[in-house]
């Protein structure tokens, strides 16, 4: 890693990095607006997606969700409380460890997430050529 950090960057490298970060910001802005139109905050949308997209399971622990959201456990508890109050998630006791709660999506959340995910996939497909070109440019040895 250190070698990559000390290697001189060209003007083209800086331009590609700036363009890539701009593209990411544009996608995140798109995503935030789409979530708002669906009646969710971007953080709520991300939580629903993290639960639905968790590998191999339909329910997650608060700790697993916190890790996926890159936030503290107590912040995730508050988020899950708000999602539960909105009828978007339900908490159940973990049959393997009654001290833990498992969080899963309600049918209402499944429907909202399906619509949001479809438009996000379409937007990413639209952006794919330009993002791929930027990643290729950043990966090229110069």
UniProtKB/TrEMBL annotation:
Protein name: MarR family transcriptional regulator
Gene3D superfamilies per record: Winged helix-like DNA-binding domain superfamily/Winged helix DNA-binding domain
InterPro entries: HTH_MarR-typ, MarR/SlyA-like, Tscrpt_reg_MarR-type_CS, WH-like_DNA-bd_sf, WH_DNA-bd_sf
Pfam families in the record: MarR_2
GO molecular function: DNA binding; DNA-binding transcription factor activity
PANTHER family cross-referenced by the UniProt entry: HTH-TYPE TRANSCRIPTIONAL REPRESSOR YETL, TRANSCRIPTIONAL REGULATOR, MARR FAMILY
Keywords (A to Z) from UniProt: DNA-binding, Transcription, Transcription regulation
GO terms (BP aspect): response to stress
Domain HTH marR-type: 1-142
SUPFAM superfamilies registered for this protein in UniProt: Winged helix' DNA-binding domain (SSF46785)
């Amino acid at each position: 890693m250190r070698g990559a950090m000390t290697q001189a960057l060209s003007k083209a490298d800086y331009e590609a990095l700036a363009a890539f970060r701009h593209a990411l910001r544009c996608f995140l802005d798109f995503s935030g607006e789409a979530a708002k139109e669906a009646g969710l905050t971007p953080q709520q949308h991300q939580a629903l997606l993290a639960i639905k997209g968790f590998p191999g399971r339909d329910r997650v622990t608060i700790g697993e969700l916190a890790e996926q959201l890159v936030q503290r456990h107590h912040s995730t508890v508050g988020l899950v409380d708000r999602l539960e109050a909105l009828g978007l998630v339900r908490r159940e006791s973990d049959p393997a460890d009654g001290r833990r709660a498992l969080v899963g999506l309600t049918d209402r959340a499944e429907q909202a997430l399906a619509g949001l995910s479809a438009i996000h996939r379409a937007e990413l497909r639209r952006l794919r050529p330009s993002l791929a070109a930027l990643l290729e440019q950043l990966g090229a040895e110069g």
